[in-house]
Amino acid sequence: MKRSIATVSLSGTLPEKLDAIAAAGFDGVEIFENDLLYYDGSPREVRQICADLGLGISLFQPFRDFEGCRRDRLARNLDRAERKFDLMQELGTDLVLVCSNAAADSVGDRQILLDDLSLLAERAGARNLRIGYEALAWGRHVNTWQQVWDLVREIDHPSLGVLLDSFHTLSLKGDPSGIAQIPGDKIFFVQMADAPILAMDVLEWSRHFRCFPGQGEFDLPGFLAPIIQSGYTGPLSLEIFNDGFRAAPTRANAADGLRSLLYLEEKTRERLVQEAAPAASLEPLFAPPKASDYKGIEFLEFAVDDNQGAQLTHWLERLGFSKAGQHRSKNVSLLRQGDINLVLNAEPYSFGHNFFEAHGPSLCATAIRVQDSASALARAVAYKGQPYRGLVGPNELELAAVRAPDGSLIYLVDQDEAGNPLYESDFNLATAHTGQGGLKRIDHMAMALPADSLDSWVLFYKSLLDFEADDEVVLPDPYGLVKSRALRSRCSTIRLPLNISENKNTAISHALSSYRGSGVHHIAFECDDLFAEVSRAKAAGVPLLDIPLNYYDDLAARFDFDDEFLSELAYFNVLYDRDAQGGELFHVYTEPFAGRFFFELLQRKNGYAGYGAANVAVRLAAMAKSRTGAVRQAKL
Amino acid sequence: MKRSIATVSLSGTLPEKLDAIAAAGFDGVEIFENDLLYYDGSPREVRQICADLGLGISLFQPFRDFEGCRRDRLARNLDRAERKFDLMQELGTDLVLVCSNAAADSVGDRQILLDDLSLLAERAGARNLRIGYEALAWGRHVNTWQQVWDLVREIDHPSLGVLLDSFHTLSLKGDPSGIAQIPGDKIFFVQMADAPILAMDVLEWSRHFRCFPGQGEFDLPGFLAPIIQSGYTGPLSLEIFNDGFRAAPTRANAADGLRSLLYLEEKTRERLVQEAAPAASLEPLFAPPKASDYKGIEFLEFAVDDNQGAQLTHWLERLGFSKAGQHRSKNVSLLRQGDINLVLNAEPYSFGHNFFEAHGPSLCATAIRVQDSASALARAVAYKGQPYRGLVGPNELELAAVRAPDGSLIYLVDQDEAGNPLYESDFNLATAHTGQGGLKRIDHMAMALPADSLDSWVLFYKSLLDFEADDEVVLPDPYGLVKSRALRSRCSTIRLPLNISENKNTAISHALSSYRGSGVHHIAFECDDLFAEVSRAKAAGVPLLDIPLNYYDDLAARFDFDDEFLSELAYFNVLYDRDAQGGELFHVYTEPFAGRFFFELLQRKNGYAGYGAANVAVRLAAMAKSRTGAVRQAKL
């Protein structure tokens, strides 16, 4: 399909926007009137800029408050339309978006609406221009696509067609399925916008909270599928009013926009296949290689220098890890426990630049187990991911990899029933495992991200890796709010809670400021007997995050625990949560390593599926105290 | 009245909050349960901290989901209550907030509610504790104060009383007037919260958007007046859930909280006087000296160094100002035009520190005309404003002054029918006015503020100076959003639009980053004939902000102007707006002076009362272009 975006969706001046739209790979652009008004060049110059960039101008928008206007204003409104038609002809576009009248003094009499729209269609037709008529969700009398189609069908003028916008239908919980019955050539244009589900005034919701497809909660494939079935062959365009987008980096955001359309097309294709739609109708939709089934995290790789490497090794050994190998040719070591592989990389230029210099001790790569790494990489590249080829020494395996949004690597590692040959090929492995620890696997890995990058990360994982995203939760830190949204591979073998904070003194913001970018916030290891693991760790001297006794008093009020058990929880600083189905979580946190990221040990019982959100606030408060404890104690 | 605040209203750890609450001058504190849970000290220690700070613990809160709970949970819930009663006794408070049950599976049968609340009152009474029962706006069965009072009256137990929260009533558009009929001793506690009027889910609204009294749009005096009339003598407490407050500087925000209660008391007193309430009932309410009537801005004072002073003088002379005086003993000059006095102060330590060094060329003082400066100053001090006494030389008038939130000064200058003697006393005045300019008066002065300080400024001007605040408007800059809220003296002789932006590349944020704090953004001068003034200014070489021609094409589509008039508007870069009543605004902007603040010349016709909000977007776009024009032109 042709892919388009409205200029209002991006930050910057009109030339900056057009430049970014072309660079992202869009075919066309909707010129939003205000962007033109504020631009210090003529419409003809804009036309030339677009032509030079290879962008079509798919439409001009919006033309407001026309049909059913006060009768004494109709002539003036038609003059206004003619002036805008002049402008469209200078711009070189033949389509204008006319949105339904939202004025309080407008009238809804059907015959008047028919007359007004006929008149406008006549005027447009006389110049070979076309009107796309759209129902605003807050239109005074016309606010559904069904009403729009009723009027368009009745008027039956070649210059008047339906313009569809997913937001205006889905925000009112409208049913798009009947769109399939509209003749495709009567649909002149389609705008796609996603949004989080918010219980608020629909106009405010639309003006400030729209987002790219896949970033919100609307069923957009359910909206697009009947449009494809109608036979519509025009462009698919993004029209996103979003406060964050108004300030977001223009090129990066435009690239996200294009990726979101590709993702929407793939998901719509899947929907149409389920509904046994004719193969020919699927033709225009993007079809990347299918995503892999994932089997968990193969290894995590940390960038360290020698000193930090030794310290991190010491921490991990106290957590029950043991040194399992040394790289054959590089300053890289392997630590293992259960199904967990951690690689400590002290080579300065492993990733094309010195990751340690740039970020300090941090996660530089995540290797995930896939069924077919070539296909997984092809999918990532189809979604405009940046593939990575590392320096491979003799006898080393080359791993498929793609860059995450923060520049770290995601290795795509073929799953092997008998374990993974990559360690044998690259490492001199220790002959026997000596570790005593009972940690089994990586349960989840939480990231701290810059506040304005969450939507971009969500879209990255959803599209390139076909992950799912849980709903956002908002959690209180003593110094502000933290927002968390968890990404999960299907079957949940990989879980990545992403955390942001707009407040500068929260734990998340402190983590970020030390990374100068995004970074791992904590890594959670699962075990079968938390008390055994935590008592071993405590005995080995692992510094555990201290939880206030008042927390345990409250547990006593909330749950039927005997005092002895509560004392044990308190002694080991174990946090507890129980879900509505009786699933239970026991978990404990370490103090941060090098002031940056920390480890969590956890045990899930009876199918507990969450991350202990009920305990995040007490954990964040304990972390704040641990950061500033000495200062504060001295002050009191 | 006793004044209190809930710990949830502030940022930080529990000791930080208590410290700030005491420093602000509150009498008591509501301990929010989570703050206690996350605190690493016993309830007894918290009691001691409060005692040492001279703070009473006015209540413990909240106890949730009790009355009408599932019958199989009642015994467990009573146990839970007993545990919390233990905790209250350790804390040393006798009052607990019990909020109405919000659980979906709770029951609303009146007899069950009566039985459950009776049982709880019995248990509390046995320990000499008291229950304040509150209707949550989203309570499942009980969500109005009328229902609460009905149950409390029926049970008639000395340990059970009504707890009122303004948000829960006003968010549902409830009528508080009947509260006057509740016996005052049956009201156990009163919480006051303001909020902007938002069309959204009431729970989300409550959890994230409450603000201090006077910062929002609720009629809080209308809520408090009947409470005073009931004979209630307990504390007035703030319970503010606000995302911004969770990260705001703790001490400054607590001080704003106390100021907001004083302001609420003054406004409630005025309301009660209007309603002819008995004088004795007014006794407990704060009564500062009345605010002055204001007669406009007497002068503006800029901090400059010699070089900047000469440049600014040159700018102002081209705008029609003339040098009218030189200070008798200081490096300070006076420029005048019409009723406008501008003072350029190049003395390095005029304000106790070098304002120029700290801020660069900027507004350091605003002098406003009052009827009685001593009373105006007393009022500001009663509202905990910081008075300022400058260094006064021989024969100099000493002016009453108070510090604005950014450290600049607000002089309170007595209005004199025959002009102001301060210029004669301090300046060697020029004998004759030589200026040709037709600028008449300062129409408004717009400020750029850090994003999180707007509410604090609004409260400052409302309370100390009794200004009014217009509703907030949101305006698009090419690189983000700008929010603007105008403060006005009654009768509108002084107008101060305050602007903030959370996005770092907007015009407002650029202005701020150059000030390292807040600062003047533009100063608007009114005249009777804009075209005469602008043509004089243009001829004198004042650089005017260039407005794109596309703007004028759109004016042509919107209004019935002839081409000649449009050409004149465009030639002089004049912006135009018309309101619904036919009021008209003509205005023009200069380029910024020294990259910081700029001037506006305007003419109002037919009672136009706004600030040309319709034209702000094109102005901000033009400013962005002016900032970065050269770079961008080179790139294209």
From TrEMBL, chains A, B:
Q: Which domain of life is it from?
A: Bacteria
Q: Which CDD domains match?
A: HPPD_C_like, HPPD_N_like
Q: What are the protein's GO molecular function terms?
A: 3-dehydroshikimate dehydratase activity; metal ion binding
Record's keyword terms, sorted: Lyase, Metal-binding
Q: Which pathway features in its UniProt record?
A: Aromatic compound metabolism; 3,4-dihydroxybenzoate biosynthesis
Q: Which residues bind a divalent metal cation?
A: E134, D165, Q191, E239
Requisite cofactors: a divalent metal cation
Name any one Pfam family assigned in the record. Glyoxalase
Q: Which reaction does it catalyse?
A: 3-dehydroshikimate = 3,4-dihydroxybenzoate + H2O
EC numbers, comma separated: 4.2.1.118
Residue intervals of the VOC domain: 296-415, 441-591
Q: Which GO terms describe its biological process?
A: 3,4-dihydroxybenzoate biosynthetic process
Q: Which family does it belong to?
A: Belongs to the bacterial two-domain DSD family.
Q: What is this protein called?
A: 3-dehydroshikimate dehydratase
The organism that produces this protein has a lineage beginning with: Bacteria, Pseudomonadati, Pseudomonadota, Gammaproteobacteria, Pseudomonadales
